[in-house]
Specification:
Chain lengths: ~325, ~525
Amino acid sequence: MDTFVAWILRAIPFGTIIMYGAMGEIITEKSGNLNLGVPGIMYLGGFAGFASAYLYENSVADPNMAFCVALALVCAFLASMAGGLIYSFLTISLRANQNVTGLALTTFGMGVANFFGVFILDGRTATQSLVYKTFQTRLPVLSELGVIGQMVFGYGFMAYAAVILAVVLHHILNHTRTGLNLRAVGENPATADAAGINVTRYKYLATCLGAGISGLGGLYYVLDYNQGIWATTGQIEALGWLAVALVIFTTWKPLNAIWGSYLFGMLYWLYQFLPTLMGFSVPGYVTDLIQMVPYLVTIAVLIVTSMRKKREDQPPASLGLAYFREER
Amino acid sequence: MEYAIELRHITKTFGSVVANHDVSLSVRKGEILSLLGENGSGKTTLMNMIAGIYYPDAGEILVEGKPVEIRGPKDAYACGIGMVHQHFKLIDVFTAAENIALVLDRREKYDLKAVKDKARAICERYRFDIDLDQKVYEMSVSQKQTLEIIKMLYHGAQLLILDEPTAVLTPQETEKLFAVMRNMKADGKSIIIITHKLHEVLAISDRVAILRKGEYAGTVETCAATEAMLTEMMVGKKVELNIERPEPVNPHLRLSVHNLSVTNAEGVKVLDRVTFEAFSGEILGIAGISGNGQKELLEAIAGLQAADKDSSVVYYPDDDRDSTAEQLIGKTPRDIRDLGVHLSFVPEDRLGMGLVGSMSMVDNMMLKSYNEGRSILTDRSAPRHLAEEIKEELGVVTPSIHTPVSRLSGGNVQKVLVGREIAAVPSVLMTAYAVRGLDIHTSYTIYRLLNEQKKKGVAILYVGEDLDVLIDLCDKILVLCGGRCNGLLDARSTTKEEVGLLMTQIKEQQEGGVA
């Protein structure tokens, strides 16, 4: 039982990181932009959030807790949006190839974050910082109500914010005019254009906001999951790709991202907990193979949805294609 | 008389191509106006200017007597103008109601239920039959069209433009559409319908406006019009082109097409029991409004389209007929090519078929020869010589034969394409729209090339658009209409009107088809 609880307690924070990444990417892809720069964007978000909070704490005598948290969130969001803006400008305005641009952005984000991470922070971390504690704060009373309380309420505020965001995004996409227009842009930009929708604006906004949301995943990784330490950042890349896979797994629906991300978390940590739970041990080289399971599940989902050919489960029809008004 | 819309002296050019020149026409309130014209006569361009897709270079548009500026689709909506395009502007994964809601005024509240209620009222008023909760991808073509019309009416269209609405409909669906159009007319709406089909023009419209080569050719009251008269207005007087036409020398049967039928992916018969023969040393012209089976006919012969059962295409490579006859149906495109039946197809976008835009002339020549020879390395010198030769002989203007062909002008691309097929010494050469978009001079070069092949004893199938050219260049003309063979004419004695009539109206099917 303890092992199982520990598994859940590991899987949900893990899932939260990729849920942010995936939600941002869903919004981006709904506008028809396939942004493979998610890992890079998560780096940017994680680094900007961490660095801003760290520098603020260390330069002010009496740091304000609320301001510090807000600063980290805003900086992470803005830095990620900047990444999305680079991508938007290249693919929407200049009509560069989306795949190439996305991959370049991943490399760029990793490079920037790691370079400045070493340069500015000089190997120091913010383990005992104010901001880390705030991000880690659990609900008082409720999180102490036994095993259930621990499993349901034992996480920092961003874990719950992610769930709320997923519900909000679901509502926006399916029950508002903005959502209808956004989906139209991703499905058939020419039709959206003829309906008087500003395709370029929708694509820019969706891509930049989507990048901002993805970047929060990086922030959550550094300040909560990784306990406020700017180290082992190499894992962000793996998480970013997992988020991209999760988008396919959810069939582009934010609500599916909630349980999908937790499932991915469970599957990712399968190697550590399942053997203990079942009472056997596996050699080290097998664990790497087991960590592949989320990707295998994604492939399985792709096979199933492709075979069922249900139109609602397909990616937006113009995903990956640049749009420009046809002139003769 | 009050007009719903008036166009005054509209001119529109695309680069150096004049699509509409000084066109003036008007639509009365509560009338159905047919807009008639050949392919490329500028009908759709003209309508696109009313719908806000294009903006006219000169001239003015008056809606209900007041001059208006239509700069985008939104302005058109605001003026009460709605256009149903040939390619529907619908989102497949949305329901009918969501598609209608997409164009709503942004300040209005987003309320699908209210949208449905209002749309349902419109359906009842004009007797549309549609399920508003159905997804578009589950709809038939006719249902999608109905949805487009409802969408336009929902947004308050007083003037409805239908771009070839019947092209995709069955006769029963067409009747239904006409009934709805009459309902709308009775309700005071004005309708412009673009069509090629003369009997539909006569059946539905009050007046007919005719465009010819981008210019306004006149408007007639439908009750006073006859098919012959409309055809003459549409095709115009014969223009003498002075294209050389050598007499066929010693023609032999080369290709015998019998009962060739093709059914497309949607289950529609696009080619229906076409039967004809092509002879060596002859140019057989194929006339027809585009989309009446020309493409399918050539592709079926070339093996690119699967033909239906009982179709037969027999090819006689030698003048001695029976010993070497080959059935082409069932052979692969490469086998057919190797036998000497070549297709040089020039689709709308020139580079779409036959040439790879990013590759040089040399590499494009290699596309047809890469698998020749026994060496594991491809032979690059032969294609290079061929490219040089084509450049020299046809006068292809290019900085070098190593320049990507997409950087060449349209005419030069076409020369490369036709040149390559001719260089392979075909015995049957099929060309489609070989002079589309070319200037006069280049067109004559292509005609000369074809005539040279003809003199060498090649059987040529020439799918063309310009009737003057067909009549002057070809020996015989086969007219396709609705995927059927609608007549085989002697080009030397036929008239433009005769061809035009056959193109627009299906003759009663004779027993055993038209010979």
